[in-house]
Design a protein that fits this description.
alpha+beta, Helix Hairpins, five-stranded mixed β-sheet, 8 helices
């Protein structure tokens, strides 16, 4: 009896297991496919369209695999047996034509969506059916990835926060993104797709949050020991609540100057939220060009100096080649005039 009871128990568990798995899946956060921002919504639609197009091929292939396995099973003696069959024009047309048409449609969808959802491209709408004027005012937020925290600077308001991002709902946002250390990835699933943050470079993301609420942002690119806790709170609020929040940040009293920034640069894990009422002028430029440390040369200044040196070197080489050509290839009485011509043309 004990063995029979154990078998019955195993059968019950086996039957209930799928229901238990569905129960566990009900707790999954599907924010990527049900976001609150228009850009993320369009990206989710693109995923659905691509999936449905591919299923047009995948589902029939799977069903036909089971159908052929069942129809031509060994015990089915009534199935047609044609060992010499080798070609069917109709079958070839279906096998190659259907995938080709789907690839063409996918290519068109991808081409249009790639340009339409280009993160550098300003938004053309706030939400479906609500167009956005080209001259619309954007809220600019400068984002810097640190070890292992996020710094947000609001240049319009002269404030900054650490691990806290707040924006008004239905207000277009322009993110300027960089990294102070290794390459990272800025990702708010409810708002838009991930954008890489790279040291010495500035990437851009245009987005809008349409529904007020509390969301989560994080790093989607491994960056070291504190990567798992490199998260921040993101809130979409009304315009009035946003102005109140700005006033609260301005009342915090702290100032983001060079000394405070260098402290933030030090690696920390689970860094608390910090607010800065003022931001030192030129801070973002110094972060992007990696010259916050006193005495360091900014990357843009260094590149300008290098370009100027390269330009003067190219001029010298051109004149030298011109002189050599004149001496070797031209008559003696042409040399002076040719050199003068080459020099004057180069100078112009």
């Amino acid at each position: 009896m004990s063995g029979f009871a154990g078998l019955r128990f195993f059968q019950c568990v086996k039957r209930l297991l799928p229901a238990c798995m569905l129960g566990l899946l009900s707790g999954c956060n599907t924010v990527v496919m049900n976001p609150s921002g228009d850009v993320a919504r369009q990206q989710a639609d693109l995923i659905l369209v691509s999936t449905w197009l591919m299923l047009i091929i995948i589902v029939p292939v799977i069903l036909l695999t089971f159908f052929f396995a069942w129809k031509y099973r060994q015990s089915n003696t009534s199935a047609t047996y044609e060992p010499d069959w080798d070609h069917s024009a109709k079958l070839e047309l279906v096998i190659w034509g259907a995938p080709l048409l789907i690839i063409i449609v996918l290519g068109l969808v991808t081409w249009v969506s790639t340009h339409k959802l280009d993160p550098y491209r300003p938004l053309s709408r706030l939400t479906e059916g609500v167009a956005l004027h080209k001259e619309a005012d954007y809220l600019e937020v400068q984002v810097s990835a640190l070890d292992w925290k996020w710094l947000f600077i609001y240049p319009e308001y002269g404030i900054a926060t650490v691990n806290e991002l707040v924006t008004p709902a239905n207000k277009p946002i322009r993110f300027k993104i960089t990294s102070a250390t290794v390459m990272n990835s800025f990702f708010i699933p409810a708002l838009a797709g991930q954008i890489y943050a790279m040291p010495g470079m500035e990437t851009t993301l245009h987005a809008v949050i349409n529904e007020p609420g509390e969301y989560t942002g994080f790093s989607a690119n491994y960056s070291g020991a504190g990567f798992s806790h490199m998260r921040f709170a993101y809130r979409g609020v009304s315009a009035e609540d946003f102005q109140q929040w700005v006033a609260q940040v301005k009342a915090s009293g702290q100032s983001l100057d060079t000394a405070h920034y260098l402290q933030l640069e030090q690696p920390t894990i689970k860094h608390p939220v910090e607010r800065y009422a003022q931001v030192q002028e030129g801070m973002w430029h110094a972060i992007v060009n990696r010259c916050v440390h006193e005495g360091s040369v900014c990357m843009d200044a260094q590149m300008l100096a290098d370009a100027q040196r390269m330009g003067s070197t190219e001029d010298s080489i051109a004149v030298l080649l011109g002189q050599t050509f004149a001496v070797l290839c031209l008559p003696a009485n042409w040399w002076h005039g040719s050199l003068t011509l080459l020099t004057s043309c180069k100078a112009s």
